[in-house]
Amino acid sequence: MTTHTRILFLGPTGVDKSAVAKRLSDFVGKSWGQSFRYVDFEKDFLKKHIASQGNTWTRFLAADLRVQSSIWHTAWEEFSKTLGTEITVLGLHATYVSAIMGLRCPIHIPDICGSFKPTLIVSLIDDVQNMWRRTEERAAGRDSAGRPTFEQLLSARRAEQILGDMIVTHSQSGSARHVVCATGNALVSLANLVIFDADVTYMSFPISVPMNMADAGDASFMKLINHAHQLALREMHRERMRAFITPLSIDELPLLKLKQGADGNVTYDCATGRWNQDELWDDANAAILPMLKNGFKIPHGEQIQPAAGTMGTDVGWRDRRLVLQSKSLAIVCPKDPAADRITRGVRDEIATAVTVGTPCFYWQNPEWDKGGYVQSQFPSAGSMGQGFTELLVQRADSLESLISAKP
Q: How do residues 254-275 score in pLDDT, each as one tens digit?
């Protein structure tokens, strides 16, 4: 049944790749009777090798890069001897980040491509506040455990994705692919990627406008976006070759609007501090990782303020990447209900997709566009026939037909 037998999960510290693998294993086992071997490289091989040499993880993080690379290579040789014919998902840090030593990359790409030969690389990402919370809880106040800052975690998140691209370019397989996937996406989306090599469809829609409308007391746009995601969830369960990726799987900018308290901290809660993930899918168990519960404190001056600029620019950088890895775009209501304009983010995503020849399908709620503004931006072919944009940007008659439109 499966297309891929060697799958590589990348992701910075704090993403919790092991929890992702456990939920994926449970899902594919229950759904299709499929199983795979999961290997946590750092836990199962690298840390054991470091301990056998009488060293500690802290010393490894502080070692010279060449020493780190040599240790990593020896641990990899031990791992490679365990490889068989079974389906293997390998969890791996392409970078190591800590508050003291910063960002390091000791991995040996020829080793990964030569002996493991992954045909699917998935860069798992998460909201930086969630990554930070997990690393802080794991460190329990011990600086020796690493405790990377927001800024360092964001740097590691970008670096891991770039190294995923490098593994693909060094791969001996001409069909190897690299997909960036946040843990707020649907679990079935990841399962369809891993088991069926599904095509990715990127969901494009305004984000700030619905949130601003909801803050002003009108949640209609937000509810419509949620409904589109719930239709996509059903579509992925029905059509195994579909994998919808949503920009709402990462939602960090609302964090910047929170005011710090007298103690200098911001109190953050995933249920209220971002677009609510459970309401998005209408199912608390639908996402790759469930929404973190309970609020937690984040030092504003030490964490949020220094990383604010990176968090702001990361949105466009990330969304452009998500568009470029997709086979199609499903665009939900690109027009601001209060103005005759297609929001800038959606317009940029369409422009990026059209540039590389990716088909775009859109549906506009007619109640919010009685003058036909959106259709006038993507008119039918004129006397000279269809142009490039007219060919690639197609209107869907309903939200349901938009979600079912295939690349």
A: 999 998 898 999 999 999 999 9
